[in-house]
Specification:
- Helix content is 45%, strand content 14%.
- It is of the alpha/beta class.
- It folds into five domains: 203 residues, Rossmann fold (3-Layer(aba) Sandwich), CATH 3.40.50; 74 residues, Arc Repressor Mutant, subunit A, CATH 1.10.10.160; 204 residues, 3-Layer(aba) Sandwich (Rossmann fold); 152 residues, PCRA, domain 4; 93 residues, SH3 type barrels (Roll), CATH 2.30.30.
- The strands form four sheets. Strands 9, 10, 11, 12, 13, 14, 15, 16 and 17 form a nine-stranded mixed β-sheet that branches.
- Strand 14 and strand 15 form a beta hairpin.
- Helix 18 packs across helix 22 and helix 21 packs across helix 22.
- It is globular and about 80 Å long.
- The N terminus and C terminus are likely disordered.
- The structure holds adenosine-5'-triphosphate and magnesium ion.
C-alpha cells in the first residue's frame, strides 16, 4: 500500500473549517482536581505526569484526548495514544466516548506499541525488505528458526541453548540495536557467535517475509532514522502523542516516540517509577526520569491524591514499596474511609489456597463477610506466575464459578490451534516456511525427515519458498510413492485455498472449515482415539467461531499474534484471573493476591538473575498488586506448593514482613479448626499436618509466620461444615443412567452420554466430552456446595 497518497488526502481533508468550529462546553473538566486539570488543559508542548498509583494519571490522559477532540485541536486520526495492553486501549476508547457523550469513532492510532507498530510497518514493509503481508512469528516459531541456525553453525545447542540466543536477540532489539549496531562490548555473547547469528536470523526472517515482536518497533525506528520523508509525514500526521505507563518503555519504544515527537513536541507521558515492572524485558525507568532533559521546558505535573484505594490499602502498599532504595519517593493521601484492613491468610498448600479463594469469592459475592456484596466482575485474582492460574481455574471449574483469564493467549497456544493456524498462515502468506514445516507432515502424510530434507534442499537450491520447493519436488518426481502423492495433494490444496481467499460468496470462516477438512486435519483428530481428541475437535470448532469476528483470515492472524487478552467471553459477570503484570493500570474493588511465598514472590529467578535490582522490581510488582485494590485486598501464602510437578516447602514472602502491622488483619486458615474443605481433603490430621509441614519448611522460624501467629485474630473464616462423601463407589456405574446430570471434581458438571466398562463418557459443560472413571463422578444434586 502506498501511504503517501493517503497522507495528502488526509491532510487536505483535515480542513481548517473543522478546527475553526466553536468548541463545545467541557463539563468533564469539572471532574478533575486542579493538578489534573492543568495537565489536561496544557494541550501544546511536552507534559509529564509522574505520580503514584491511583492518582488519576490515566484519567487525566483520557480526558486530555477528549479535550483535544472536543476543542477541535485534533481529529481522531491525528492522535497517537499508546497504552500497554489491548484491554487498556479498549478501556481508554470507551472512556473517551463517555466523556464526550458519544462513541469515539475511529481512533485508529490508539493501541499498544505492538498493535500500532504492525500497522505502520505494513505500510512501509518494503523499506526494510519485507512485503506488506509479512507474518508475525510467535516465540515458538522464533525458537525453531534460531535452532536451525544454531545447528547449521555447528554450535552445541545443549551448551548454548537457542532459547538463550532468543533472549539475547530480544534484549538487543529492545535496545534498538540492529546486527550492525550491536556494540563491541557485546561481542562475547552466545559463545562469541551472537552477533553473527543475529545477522543470519534477520536475513532469514526477510526470506520468510516475517518478523518477530521486537522487529515491529525496531524496523520502524530504522525506517524513521533512514527515511526522513517518512518520519516527517508521521510527525505531521500525529499532531498529538500520549503515552500511558511511560515508566515501562524500552529504548526502542522510547526512540520511536522521541523521533515522532521531535517536530511539534506535543507529547504527554504519564507514569510512576514505583510501577516499573518490565525491566526484565528491557524497560528503562530512566526514560521517564530524563523526560525533562529530552523535552526542555516540559510541564511536569505531580498528583498526590489517590482516588482508588482505602487508607489501609494505601498504607500497606506504601509500607512495602518503602523497602526500595532506588526510587524518587512520593507521598500519597486519600480522602476515602478507612474500610477493611489488608487481609492476610496462610494455607497448607496451593490447592487449599485455591479452594479457600473460591469459597471466599462466593461468600463475598453473597455479602456474608460483614462487607457489602461484591459482584464477580468486581473481584480479581492476581498471580505472580501464570502456572499459579491452573489451581484456580480447576477449582472454579469444579464449583462452577464463572471466571475469565486475562492476559495470555492461552487458547491460541494449544497444539491443534497452532497447527490449524499454520495452515491459515500458509494460505495467506505462501512464503511462510515455518508454517509449512509445521504442517507438511501434520497430519501424517508419509513425508518423513528424508522427504522433508529433499524439499528443503530443492527450495534452497532454487531460492524459493518451501511450498514452491515442494511443488518442484512433485513436478520433478523427487519424492516417490505415497508421500509424493500426498505432497501433490497438499501443494494443490494450498494453491486452491489461496485462490479461494476473497472469492465472492465464500466467507473466510467457510474457507477455514474447507481448509481444515480438505487438508485432512479435522479427520486426523476424528480418527484419533486418545482421550483428548474430542477436546481438540471442540477447540477447532471454537477457533472457527473466533474467526467470525474478523473481516478476513489475515486480520484474524494478526489479532492472534497481538492479543494479550482472552477474548472469548459471553458477557456475563466473571471473576478475573491474571498475572500481576497484566493487571497494570487496572483496578478492582476486591483483589486476591495469592502465592506470597519467597521464591515464588519475590521470584527466585528474578533475584538470581538480577540481584537487588531484581528484588526491587519484584517489590514494585507487589506495590502494583496491592494498589489494584479499591476496598478489599487479600494476601495469601501456602506452606507447600507443587511447582512443575515437584512439592516445595515455602516460607512466607519477605514482602509479608514489610506490611505495616497496623493495617493488616490476619485471618485464620479454616483447616486449623478441623472444618472446611481443607479437612475434608487432607483427612483428619489437618491440624498436625499443617504443623508438620510448617515445621518441615522451617516456617516457624520465619518472622512472617511468627507474626502471623501472634496477630491471628482467631476469626475462623470458614464455618465447619458437615462432611459429605463426594465419592461414589466404583460399583455404582450401573446406578448412572444415560442423560444423568453429574459432577466431576476436575471437569465440573456434565451429562452422561455413554458407558464403557467402569468408565463413563460425559459431555462436560465446560470441559467438553471426556471419558472418566465412574468412581470420580457424583450425581449433580449430591455435590456438597
Ligand atoms: P495507575 O498508576 O494504577 O495506572 P492512575 O494514576 O492511572 O493509576 P486512574 O486509573 O486514572 O489512576 O484513576 C484511579 C481511580 O481514581 C479511577 O477510578 C478514577 O476514575 C478515579 N479518579 C481519578 N481522578 C479523579 C478525580 N479527580 N476525582 C474523582 N475520581 C478520580
Ligand atoms: Mg493508569
Amino acid at each position: 500500500m502506498s501511504s503517501f497518497d493517503d497522507f495528502d488526502a488526509f491532510e487536505a481533508a483535515s480542513s481548517l473549517s473543522a478546527r475553526a468550529m466553536a468548541a463545545r462546553p467541557s463539563p468533564y473538566l469539572d471532574e478533575l482536581n486542579p493538578a489534573q486539570r492543568e495537565a489536561v488543559e496544557a494541550l501544546d508542548g511536552p507534559v509529564l505526569m509522574l505520580a503514584g498509583a491511583g492518582t488519576g494519571k490515566t484519567k487525566a490522559l483520557t480526558t486530555r484526548i477528549a479535550h483535544l477532540l472536543n476543542t477541535h485541536k485534533a481529529r481522531t486520526n491525528e492522535i497517537l495514544a499508546v497504552t500497554f495492553t489491548n484491554k487498556a486501549a479498549r478501556e481508554m476508547k470507551n472512556r473517551v466516548g463517555r466523556l464526550l457523550g458519544q462513541p469515539a469513532e475511529g481512533m485508529p492510532w490508539m493501541g499498544t506499541f505492538h498493535a500500532i507498530g504492525v500497522k505502520l510497518l505494513r505500510r512501509h514493509a518494503e523499506l526494510v525488505g519485507l512485503k506488506s503481508n509479512f507474518t508475525i512469528l510467535d516465540t515458538d516459531d522464533q525458537l525453531r528458526l534460531l535452532k536451525q541456525l544454531v545447528q547449521a553453525a555447528h554450535i552445541d545447542d545443549k551448551r548454548w541453548p537457542p532459547r538463550q540466543l532468543a533472549s539475547i536477540i530480544d534484549g538487543w532489539k529492545n535496545r534498538a540495536w540492529t546486527p550492525s549496531s550491536v556494540p563491541a562490548a557485546e561481542a562475547s555473547a552466545y559463545n562469541q557467535r551472537g552477533v553473527e547469528l543475529y545477522a543470519q536470523y534477520q536475513t532469514r526472517l526477510k526470506e520468510l517475509n516475517a518478523c518477530d515482536f521486537g522487529d515491529l518497533l525496531l524496523h520502524m525506528v530504522t525506517i524513521f532514522q533512514t527515511h526522513e520523508d517518512v518520519l516527517q509525514q508521521y510527525q505531521r500526521w500525529f499532531r498529538y502523542i500520549l503515552v500511558d505507563e511511560y515508566q515501562d518503555t524500552n529504548v526502542a519504544q522510547y526512540l520511536w516516540l522521541r523521533l515522532l515527537a521531535s517536530g511539534h513536541k506535543n507529547i504527554c507521558c504519564v507514569g510512576d517509577d514505583d510501577q516499573s515492572i518490565y525491566g526484565w524485558r528491557g524497560a528503562e525507568v530512566g526514560n521517564i526520569l530524563r523526560f525533562e532533559t529530552d523535552f526542555p521546558g516540559a510541564k511536569v505535573v505531580r498528583l498526590e491524591q489517590n482516588y482508588r484505594s482505602t487508607p489501609h490499602i494505601l498504607a500497606a502498599a506504601s509500607g512495602v514499596i518503602d523497602g526500595n532504595k532506588d526510587r524518587l519517593g512520593k507521598t500519597l493521601f486519600t480522602d476515602a474511609q478507612d474500610g477493611e484492613k489488608v487481609r492476610l491468610i496462610g494455607h497448607w498448600d496451593g490447592e487449599e489456597e485455591a479452594r479457600w479463594v473460591g469459597e471466599e469469592v462466593e461468600a463475598m459475592q453473597s455479602g456474608t463477610r460483614g462487607m457489602r456484596p461484591f459482584s464477580l466482575d468486581q473481584m480479581a485474582i492476581l498471580v505472580r506466575a501464570s502456572h499459579q492460574m491452573r489451581a484456580f481455574e480447576d477449582r472454579f471449574l469444579t464449583i462452577g464459578l464463572p471466571y475469565r483469564v486475562i492476559g495470555g493467549p492461552r487458547f491460541y497456544e494449544r497444539m491443534e490451534i497452532r497447527d490449524a493456524m499454520a495452515y491459515f498462515r500458509l494460505v495467506v502468506s505462501p512464503e511462510d516456511d515455518l508454517a509449512f514445516e509445521r504442517i507438511v507432515n501434520t497430519p501424517k502424510r508419509g513425508l518423513g525427515d528424508k522427504a522433508q530434507q529433499t524439499i528443503q534442499r530443492t527450495a534452497r537450491e532454487n531460492g524459493v519458498s518451501l511450498k514452491e520447493g515442494a511443488r518442484l519436488c512433485v513436478e520433478g518426481g523427487l519424492i516417490k510413492g505415497k508421500g509424493g502423492a500426498a505432497l501433490r495433494v497438499l501443494v494443490d490444496g494450498l494453491d486452491r485455498w489461496s485462490r479461494m481467499t476473497g472469492e465472492a460468496g465464500l466467507s473466510h470462516t467457510e474457507l477455514a472449515e474447507i481448509i481444515l477438512d480438505e487438508s485432512g486435519y479435522t479427520t486426523h483428530w476424528q480418527n484419533e482415539k486418545t482421550p483428548e481428541a474430542p477436546g481438540r475437535l471442540e477447540n477447532l470448532k471454537e477457533l472457527v467461531k473466533a474467526l467470525e469476528q474478523f473481516e478476513n483470515l489475515q486480520g484474524f492472524l494478526e489479532h492472534v499474534s497481538l492479543v494479550m487478552d482472552n477474548e472469548s467471553d459471553d458477557g456475563g459477570a466473571k471473576v478475573s484471573i491474571m498475572t500481576l503484570h497484566a493487571a497494570k493500570g487496572l483496578e478492582f474493588p476486591a483483589v486476591f493476591l495469592p502465592g506470597w511465598e519467597d521464591g515464588l514472590f519475590p521470584s527466585q529467578r528474578s533475584m538470581d538473575e538480577s540481584g537487588i535490582k531484581g528484588l526491587e522490581e519484584e517489590r514494585r510488582l507487589a506495590y502494583v498488586g496491592i494498589t489494584r485494590a479499591e476496598e478489599v485486598c487479600t494476601i495469601s501464602f501456602a506452606a507447600n506448593r507443587r511447582v512443575f510437578g515437584q512439592w516445595q516447602n515455602a516460607l512466607p514472602s519477605r514482602f509479608i514482613d514489610e506490611l505495616p502491622e497496623a493495617h493488616v488483619d490476619v485471618l485464620t486458615p479454616p483447616g486449623l479448626y478441623g472444618g472446611g474443605m481443607g479437612a475434608q481433603s487432607m483427612g483428619s490430621g489437618i491440624e498436625s499436618g499443617l504443623e508438620d509441614a510448617a515445621a518441615a519448611a522451617n516456617v516457624y522460624n520465619s518472622p512472617g509466620w511468627r507474626r502471623l501467629q501472634e496477630r491471628s485474630s482467631q476469626r475462623p473464616m470458614s464455618q465447619p461444615r458437615e462432611s459429605k462423601n463426594m465419592v461414589i463407589d466404583a460399583a455404582a456405574v450401573s446406578s448412572h443412567v444415560m442423560g444423568d446430570r453429574v459432577f466431576h471434581q476436575k471437569f465440573g458438571y456434565g451429562a452422561i452420554i455413554g458407558v464403557e466398562g467402569d468408565k463413563l463418557e460425559i459431555d462436560f459443560e465446560k470441559a467438553g466430552i471426556k471419558k472418566v472413571v465412574a468412581k470420580f463422578i457424583t450425581g449433580a444434586d449430591d455435590v456438597p456446595f
